[in-house]
Specification:
This protein is mainly alpha-helical. A hairpin with an 8-residue loop joins β1 and β2. The N and C termini lie far apart (53 Å). The radius of gyration is 19 Å and the shape is globular. It is 57% helix and 3% strand.
Amino acid sequence: MDSTPNSTAARLREYLNDARQAVIFKSGQLTEELARRPMTATGTHILGVVHHLAITEYGYFGLCLNRPVDDPYARKMLELDDPQADFIPPADFSAQQVIDLYQRAIEFADAGFDKLELASPAEVPWWVRHRQTTLERLMVHMIAETSRHAGHLDIVRELLDGQVGLRPEAPNLPDYTARQWQEQRDRLQQAADSKRGSG
């Protein structure tokens, strides 16, 4: 794959890696209990999202490109029929083991990027549209997928322990004090209250 700066391939890899790093940042430095605590009615939790993304990377950048998946656990997960299985990491996996699985999936995907071209053919059995596709479309899809789930992790992590920001070196948030954030939240709550009953 063309890795020269400003090439399409380089830009796709940059955006995908930025989203991946956000996921890793959001999933680190939590207790085992907090990493597994479900925060929505559908069970969204930190490790579930990371585990899903790991299996998804192996699926798109292994199975769909006809590349042998080198991780026995990921191979087993990809054979399951349960559509929610990849959101439920095994109870005997530690948080670090789930994060390590994701990092191995990234390394596996990146090794494929180094050998393949954007136009390399791919087949996604579970897609209705564009079933016959290319590596380029898979990368665009994974940028969207990973960014969407990084956003989920933003919210879940803030609810769990108050951690906010994109990543340590670039938080992408104003440097507000706790009081300023509370004042902003109060203004937003007042605006919502003023619309109560208005449909």
